[in-house]
């Protein structure tokens, strides 16, 4: 639904190029369903595809929320490591899932070069995992693993929230991501932290979900251990 999109004008903080990129109108967002790790499915345009901006001139790529946060030192890094090797491409039009995958990979590259906060890198990896899930690609699990590593470090050392993820939501999410990777003992530990945190009582839906996913993880853990003993 092209009419759901509009153009946003951006000035690149690296090369000062002015470019246009698509965004999804809030009024056009139609939620279809949500997975237990917060992965959202939409009827119509998917806002996740457009949350990352890419300058077509220099290749600098980042979440919209941090796109302008560039120091002179960071600018030199991007020019040397990205812009000098960049083949000009325009991701400012309507995007499909494969183009979204490409821009998220570019954002992760830039984020790593700039030593961005682990919370930001974790969110990029999480969403890239979701994009692979949309197309049934097994690489989803590689990026969920990267997301866990980043989020665990962010939980220990960085200020929360991370976007919409407050502390209790992040604790729950770490449980669910570990469960999906069949790391059931770690999942159970994070779910225990979630359900025993007072803050979860302010989020009834999350409380119910955490207890259900904890139960599923416990059952899977027992089966896993039973299978190992029978080998």
From TrEMBL:
Keywords, sorted A to Z: TPR repeat
TPR repeats: 168-201
UniProt cross-references to Gene3D superfamilies, sorted A to Z: Tetratricopeptide repeat domain
Pfam families with a match to the protein in the record: DUF2225
Descriptive protein name: Tetratricopeptide repeat protein
Biological source species: Marinisporobacter balticus
């Amino acid at each position: 639904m092209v009419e759901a999109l509009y153009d946003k004008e951006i000035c690149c903080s690296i090369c000062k190029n002015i470019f246009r990129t698509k965004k999804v109108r809030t009024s056009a967002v139609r939620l279809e369903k949500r997975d237990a790790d917060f992965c959202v499915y939409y009827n119509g345009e998917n806002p996740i595809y457009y949350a990352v901006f890419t300058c077509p001139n220099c290749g600098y790529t980042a979440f919209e929320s941090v796109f302008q946060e560039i120091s002179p030192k960071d600018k030199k890094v991007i020019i040397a490591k990205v812009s000098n090797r960049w083949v000009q491409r325009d991701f400012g039009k309507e995007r499909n899932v494969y183009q979204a995958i490409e821009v998220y990979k570019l954002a992760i590259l830039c984020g790593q070069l700039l030593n961005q906060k682990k919370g930001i890198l974790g969110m990029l990896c999480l969403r890239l995992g979701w994009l692979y899930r949309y197309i049934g690609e097994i690489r989803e699990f590689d990026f969920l693993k990267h997301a866990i590593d980043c989020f665990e470090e962010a939980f220990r050392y960085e200020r929360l929230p991370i976007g919409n993820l407050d502390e209790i939501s992040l604790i729950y999410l770490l449980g669910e991501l570990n469960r999906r990777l069949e790391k059931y003992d770690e999942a159970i530990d994070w779910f225990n932290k979630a359900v025993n945190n007072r803050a979860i009582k302010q989020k009834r839906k999350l409380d119910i979900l955490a207890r259900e996913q904890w139960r599923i993880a416990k059952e899977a853990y027992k089966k896993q251990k039973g299978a190992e003993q029978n080998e």
